[in-house]
Specification:
By secondary structure, this protein is of the alpha+beta class. The chain has one domain: FAD/NAD(P)-binding domain, CATH 3.50.50.60. The chain is built from 10 helices and 20 strands. It has an 8-stranded mixed sheet, with helices on both faces. The protein has a 6-stranded mixed sheet with strand order 8-2-1-12-19-18. A 3-stranded antiparallel sheet has the order 3-7-4. The protein is globular. 50% of the residues are buried.
Length: 375
């Protein structure tokens, strides 16, 4: 039973980016996979995200890069604009999946999840909606997993991919802190202006804002408020508050304010980070994605790290003769890369709070160079 090539059954907690990618990769390697997802519906909330080159590279290994590029918006350039509205330079990202594909893609989060969900089910993965894990016990070479409906599974592998507030991580006794970075981040869907063909990032005196296209007709505005306490605003106050903050940004961001007024999709969330400095695994159980390492959004690499985790997990389990050895190899392979990205994102957030934007640009470039290296 200890052999990865024996009874290969896996339970994954969470049908997000990390969980669906891991399920797809494991199923492709011959594992029988079930996902427990606490959300009652397949529909995924969220606005947009950026699939950087490393994310596309990993998705290409699953045969999904082109589907994501078709459904999203391909791009290769990040344009920085300083506090006076003047260009502060461009970053041309490497095309990690070949010269014919763009370096990265913006995509609506629900669209990405539909693509990942469909591929997982195509490979035989069973997704159970409205369920989560309530108890975990290692029994010899199997993991006894109790679900919230009272049923029990005995599996060779348990994967916690249930986000930064992971309940699986707690059930496994893996301790970490959630660190607030003194920023609240905004997202709003708007019609894509014709001039937005890549990521545009604008430095402001009290925050950072920008635009990311996610389809031919839609982009999302992102904005970080600096030096504010965590708080919750009433829904009716979101659009007026975002318009007010955007007044501080000169130049072309002025064109975006009227678009925000018509948006019915505005959210405001705290910037939280975490890195699991201790073990990521216990017995035949492991946590991946944001449950193990959640960077601040400034590096736009959270999705890439999560997708890479799923592929690397399946690879290492396939290379080793036991689940324990495979999980240990997975953690060794991923720890430093993920730690560096989280620390870099935290440093960038700190420089933004201090209004030292130009010092943050080299850190961003360095982070992207690191991610361009093989996972």
């Amino acid at each position: 039973m200890n052999s990865c090539r024996g009874a290969r059954t896996a339970m994954i907690v969470g049908a997000g980016v990390a969980g669906l990618t891991a399920a797809t990769a494991l199923a492709g390697a011959g594992w029988r996979v079930e996902i427990a997802e606490v959300a009652p519906l397949k529909a995924t909330s969220g606005w947009g995200l950026c699939l950087t080159g490393p994310a596309l590279r990993a998705l290409a290994e699953l045969g999904l890069a082109d589907a994501c590029l078709t459904a999203g918006y391909g791009m290769s350039v990040i344009t920085h604009v300083d506090v006076d509205g003047e260009p502060a330079g461009q970053v041309r990202l490497p095309r990690l999946t070949g010269a014919r594909r763009p370096a990265m893609a913006g995509i609506a989060r629900p669209v990405l999840h539909r693509i990942l969900h469909a591929e997982a089910e195509q490979r035989g993965v069973v997704v159970r909606q409205g369920l989560t894990v309530t108890a975990v016990d290692q029994e010899g070479e199997l993991v006894r997993v109790r679900l919230s409906d009272g049923t029990v599974r005995l599996v060779a592998l348990l994967v916690g991919a249930d986000g930064i507030r992971s309940s699986t991580r707690s059930l496994l006794g893996l301790e970490t802190s959630l660190d607030y970075q003194g920023q609240m981040v905004w997202r709003a869907l708007v019609p894509r202006p014709q001039w937005v063909t890549g990521i545009h990032q604008f430095a402001g005196k009290a925050g950072t804002a920008g635009l990311v296209p996610i389809s031919a007709g839609v982009a999302y505005v992102f904005l970080t408020e600096n030096g504010v306490e965590q708080s919750v605003l009433p829904e009716a106050g979101l659009v007026p508050r975002l318009r007010q903050i955007l007044k501080a940004f000169p130049g072309r961001m002025a064109e975006i304010r009227p678009l925000v007024s018509g948006s019915e999709s505005v959210v405001r969330r705290p910037v939280l980070t975490t890195f699991l400095a201790g073990a990521w695994n216990r017995g035949h159980s492991v946590v991946i994605g944001d449950a193990a390492h959640a960077p601040a959004p400034q590096m736009a690499s959270g999705a890439a790290l999560a997708i890479e985790d799923g592929l690397v997990l399946a690879e290492e389990l396939g290379r080793h003769g036991s689940v324990r050895a495979g999980l240990a190899a997975f953690v060794r392979r991923r720890r430093q890369r993920c730690r560096t990205l989280v620390e870099t994102s935290v440093a960038i957030a700190g420089l933004e709070r201090a209004q030292r934007h130009r010092e943050a640009y080299p850190l961003t470039d360095g982070g992207h160079r690191l991610m361009a290296e093989p996972a």
